[in-house]
Automatic annotation (TrEMBL):
Coiled coil: none annotated. Functions in nuclear protein import. This is Importin subunit alpha. ARM repeats lie at residues 110-153, 153-181, 280-322. One of its GO terms (biological process) is protein import into nucleus. PROSITE patterns: ARM_REPEAT (PS50176), IBB (PS51214). GO terms for cellular component: cytoplasm; nucleus. Belongs to the importin alpha family. It holds the Pfam family IBB. One of its GO terms (molecular function) is nuclear import signal receptor activity. It comes from Moschus moschiferus. Keywords: Protein transport, Repeat, Transport. Residues 1-57 form the IBB domain.
Length: 522
């Protein structure tokens, strides 16, 4: 009598089977948190500019002026623009140190209001540039420092600098706004409400230098980031055409940040996924999943993985774009983090209707899936177990038999010894469903012998004494229902009726059309 009650939080990660909308939204957070632990593959929230460049090439020939903090404070507050420039440049160089820049010291010295004023000095673009650079680096660190920049009134002048005729000034303003937006949803929305998006979008063109375009793509991605709350629908509608355009750019950094932006926008309900899918990005995203560059592959896979958590129609669009031609190959990728995300995406395909499961079989996904179950890292094996669990709860009898023929039983039985009670329960339930399928075609005796020959019966019998009550009960149900000599007389556990009810509940569809306020995804 499989129940799958114990790991119900995990069930809510997949599609919309047996879930109310609220629980579905909340549990997606848990998956996201788990999948984002490898931060070196993740996009940077903030960036500090430590490159020594200048608006005016002649400055490169000028001997650097080294000032004390007190001299900087005096110079910044002077009335002579040249003294202000020298002091601001000296402050910026302090803030650009690779190690231990005195960010808080500069803030505590009260320099931010003057730096913000310098942003408005259109007659002195070198001063604007140095001030924007200094504010960029202050906003690159802790939230309290970013708040000091925002509270100092920097956002609106920075937005206005996006129209500066001086490209380096404009680019530095883009960078500063990206750091502010990357701090969290509050400041992201402050940047958006200051009308930054239209100004940023006017900068996106084929003629712009690639390094500048990288900064723009990264800043746009930070405007898509965070979901407590999500960015407004209006902002998303503004951003999507530019993201679609950038997805066709050949530069890998531009592609990486664009894919991360789309991954943030698809990390939500079906309506949000639909906004992205409707732009026609899926074929390009699937193409990028074959990239040899990890910083492009990871976010494109994440985005498509998010999309297949949506409706069956949205998943079918991903399949039509060639998803299953790529996913099986990713199960053999050199990086285990890719294995895990690929298995997670595959499990959501398996959570769909039988035609999706049949496509999964037809594309040759079962052999690499079984290989992952046998030899993968444990975190990947867990995702693969969930793929099999979704397969068995939604597949036809014939599809389950093909799963068995692919060799899934041996690695599943071997995993019954793992110290993870939830996974053990799921594996036991999978075995129950497989035995039930065999019974429907009068092959249960052969299936029981096959399981017994793989030491499965011994392990299931041992689990009847497990300290976890749910594990013990699930094992007992399998023994009494399928391996007991008196199984025909067992009536206390109406397994099939409950099984049918479970399958019916599990295939209920709930469509999420709200814009919930969800927890942050680190």
């Amino acid at each position: 009598m499989p129940t799958l009650d114990a790991p119900e939080e995990r069930l809510r990660k997949f599609k919309y089977r047996g879930k109310d909308a609220s629980a579905r939204r909340q549990q997606r957070i848990a998956v996201s948190l788990e999948l984002r632990k490898a931060k070196k593959d993740e996009q940077a929230l903030k960036r500090r500019n430590i490159t020594d460049v200048s608006l005016d090439p002649s400055d490169q020939q000028t001997k650097a002026v080294s000032l004390t903090l007190q001299e900087i404070i005096s110079g910044v507050n002077a009335s002579d623009p040249e003294l202000c420039f020298q002091a601001t440049q000296a402050a910026r160089k302090m803030l650009s140190r690779e190690k231990n820049p005195p960010l808080k010291l500069i803030v505590d010295a009260g320099l931010i209001p003057r730096l913000v004023e310098f942003l408005k000095s259109s007659l002195h673009p070198r001063l604007q540039f140095e001030a924007a650079w200094a504010l960029t680096n202050i906003a690159s660190e802790a939230s309290e420092l970013t708040r000091a920049v925002v509270d100092g009134g920097a956002i609106q002048p920075l937005v206005e600098l996006l129209s500066s005729p001086h490209m380096t000034v404009c680019e530095q303003a883009v960078w500063a706004l990206g750091n502010i937006a990357g701090d969290g949803p509050e400041f992201r929305d402050s940047v958006i409400s200051s009308d930054a998006i239209p100004h940023l979008l006017t900068l996106v063109s084929s003629s712009i230098p690639v390094p500048f375009l990288r900064n723009i793509a990264w800043t746009l991605s930070n405007l898509c980031r965070n979901k407590n709350p999500y960015p407004s629908d209006h902002a998303v509608r503004q951003l999507l055409p530019a993201l679609f355009y950038l997805l066709g750019h050949p530069d890998r950094e531009v592609l990486s940040d664009t894919c991360w932006a789309l991954s943030y926008l698809t990390d939500g309900c079906d309506a949000r996924i639909g906004q992205v899918v409707d732009t026609g990005v899926l074929p390009r995203l699937v193409e990028l999943m074959s990239s040899s560059e990890l910083n492009v592959l990871t976010p494109s896979l994440r985005t498509v993985g998010n999309i297949v958590t949506g409706t069956d129609h949205q998943t079918q669009l991903a399949l039509d774009a060639g998803l299953l031609g790529v996913l099986p190959q990713l199960l053999t990728h050199p990086r285990s983090s890719i294995h895990k995300e690929a298995a997670w995406a595959l499990s959501n395909v398996a959570a769909g209707p039988r035609q999706h499961i049949q496509q999964l079989i037809a594309c040759g996904a079962l052999p690499p899936l079984v290989a992952v179950l046998k030899n993968g890292e444990f975190k990947v094996q867990k995702e693969a177990v969930w793929t099999v669990a979704n397969f068995t709860t939604g597949g036809s009898v014939d599809q389950l038999i093909q799963l068995v023929q692919a060799g899934v039983l041996e690695p599943l039985i071997n995993l019954l010894t793992i110290p993870d009670n939830k996974m053990v329960i799921i594996i036991l339930d999978v075995l129950f469903f497989i035995l039930q399928a065999a019974e429907k075609i009068s092959q249960k005796e052969s299936m029981c012998l096959l399981i017994e020959g793989l030491c499965g019966l011994d392990r299931i019998e041992a689990l009847q004494l497990h300290e976890n009550h749910q594990v013990a009960l699930t094992a007992l149900n399998i023994i009494e229902r399928h391996f007991s000599e008196e199984e025909e007389t067992v009536t206390a556990l109406p397994a099939r009726d409950q099984d049918h009810k479970f399958l019916k509940d599990l295939t209920n569809t709930y469509h999420c059309c709200t814009t919930p306020k969800l927890g942050p995804r680190p």
